[in-house]
Amino acid sequence: MKKGTNILLSALLIFTLVFTSSSVVFAESGQSGRSQTVYNNKPISIELDKGQDYYFKFRAVKNGYLKLESYNYYGYTYGNATLCNSKKKAISSPTNLQYSPTFGVKKGKTYYIKVVPAENHDVAHTFTVINKAIREKSGKKKSKAVLLKKNKQKQGTIVAGEKRTDWYRFRVTKKSKKHELAIKGATNNKIKVVIYRGNKRMRFAGERQPLVLNAIRSNSSNTTFITGDNWKKGTYYIKVYRGTSKSSGWYSLKWR
What letter would DSSP give residue 176? Predict the structure, then answer.
């Protein structure tokens, strides 16, 4: 076989291996109102038109949260995403795609993610739905608040479309300025956190109550730390709840 033929065949083989090993699924050009089934952590690339409605159908495989990541050749995909139930009824408020919208979901349930792009591009947009598990153990009312042990983290989920409040408690055995409560999370809108000592709502210097975890935090590793000289001896209660009727997401708490 000639040398030139060998080079051509080698190049063709390399191209074939690279192309077929891609994990991105290419869908047909999007049509407004059309549904495209997607799977956990499996990128899908599709062409979209400004102002049109597109639906991604997804069956949750884990109790926890769902995060939608998107990008295109130019960077971020501009537009909004809304989580809908199995009948395509909105159970979240629209969230900017740049913030990697995050929603609380339940295993086995079917959801639709409605995407409305804000611009046209002559390139495909790539979307990835990431469903991660959250192992939660929380109380559903103050009298059933779950103990948050020192230096131990608790995680929880505010599930989209469900009315619920999560309760935790921790104990301070002696007054100290060294204690702090670390709060972190991600949401499509807002998750609120209130701290009580007994029945009294606590207020800390520089911190408003309720504290608000918002959508901006979804795309960052920011953590809110509550410190101060108000950690008197006693039992404290933490109330975590949705900020609006269409808020959902996940959170973590750590007392130290």
Answer: -
Distance between CA atoms of residues 16 and 129, nearest Å: 27
Q: Is the peptide bond before 94 cis (omega within 30 degrees of 0)?
A: no
Q: 44-70: buried (b, 16+ CB within 10 Å) or exposed (e) per residue?
A: bebbbeeebebbbbbbbeebbbbbbbb
pTM exceeding the 0.85 threshold for the entire prediction: no
The whole-number mean pLDDT for each consecutive block of 10 residues of the chain, a chain of 256 residues, reads 44 32 47 80 87 91 95 82 96 91 96 88 82 94 94 94 93 78 88 88 67 61 65 89 92 90
Residue with tokens 């591009």: 121
Which residue type is seen at 6?
N
Rg over alpha carbons for the chain, rounded to the nearest Å, is: 23
**pLDDT value of position 48:** 79
In 3D space, the residue among 229, 96, 242, 216 whose CA is nearest the CA of residue 158 turns out to be 242
Q: Cα–Cα distances in Å, from 91 out to 87, 158, 190, 249?
A: 11, 12, 14, 12
Cβ–Cβ under 8 Å, residues 154 and 207: no
What is the per-residue pLDDT for 42? 95
